[in-house]
Amino acid sequence: MTIPVAKVLSALLADPAAERYGLDLMKLTGLPSGTLYPVLHRLQAAGWLLADWEEVDPAAAGRPARRYYRLTAEGVGAARQALAELRALSPDPRPRRGGAEPTGAPAW
Amino acid sequence: MTIPVAKVLSALLADPAAERYGLDLMKLTGLPSGTLYPVLHRLQAAGWLLADWEEVDPAAAGRPARRYYRLTAEGVGAARQALAELRALSPDPRPRRGGAEPTGAPAW
DNA sequence: CCCCCTATGTAGAGTTCCGATACAGTACTA
DNA sequence: TAGTACTGTATCGGAACTCTACATAGGGGG
Asked: How big is the CA angle at A20 (ends A47 and A37), to the nearest 5 degrees?
């Protein structure tokens, strides 16, 4: 488990009904293609993810066919468990009176 | 930010008053020395962490001197922010009636 | 003498990340 | 037919990171 992998699982788990494809996941996770696709391939190899080509005529659609990714039942369970473990690293952030807590995105 | 780094920050942040040293952090984080020490060196280089040798006579103490690590003010803020970001990847786990949610540690 | 314990740290092999690039099709310009 | 731009998926290769094994150094036990 690495942070890019966790981001992909998080995006897929956020709305299990949605059909996700590469470019979509790149935007959701903020990961570049050179990171995202190896992650997707590893998740498939692990049996957590399935991939299917969209059945569409590129000429008619005016764009290349998409490859849709969806979590397997095993993947859903494993993803939930993995994300819960990550969540446990962070201490419970109870609301603080007058606290100017920084909330912007880190510069990772 | 990587998961081993997050584990170290989590351990240091859990009790900011405690004096933490290498072997101590190895046990708290479960990281081997070959992972932990490079992480500590990188955190020092980033200005998030300070390190000081324990002032003790090894012969009298019956053990080698320890090197104590503590977060800088910048490190505390950055660590909190980084861990909050990780936490945000996981959907809010509201309690579920009768749900047999897996809660054991993942096999990462 | 050899092994285990407390400690910190390095070496090197393997894995992962991510910018750059490739590939393929459509579309508009010229 | 060539150039540029757009939508997508996917790979390459160097840099970065992880982690097993080892190194160092002192103390104690069988």
From this structure: 60
pLDDT of B102 over the 70 cut: no
- HSE-CB at B50 with a 13 A cutoff on CA atoms is 10
Chain A CB contacts of B96 below 8 Å: none
From chain B, the residues in CB contact with A86 under 8 A are 3, 6, 86-87, 89-90
Question: d(Cα A21, Cα A34) in Å, to the nearest integer?
Answer: 15
CATH number of B3-54+65-89: 1.10.10.10
Locate tokens 């046990």: which residue? B27
Q: Give which of B21, B69, B16, B68 is closest to B43, Cα–Cα.
A: B69
* Extents of the domains making up chain A: 3-54+65-89
Whether the CB of A51 is less than 7 Å away from nucleic strand D comes out as: yes
Total-model pTM: 0.87
Per-residue model confidence (pLDDT) at position A55: 86
Q: Smallest Cα–C1' distance to nucleotide D6: which residue has it?
A: A63
Q: What angle (nearest 5°) sits at the alpha carbon of residue B37, between those of residues B36 and B43?
A: 90
**Interatomic distance A62 CA / C29 C1' (Å):** 19
CB B81 within 8 A of CB A102: yes
The pLDDT value recorded for residue A56 is 82
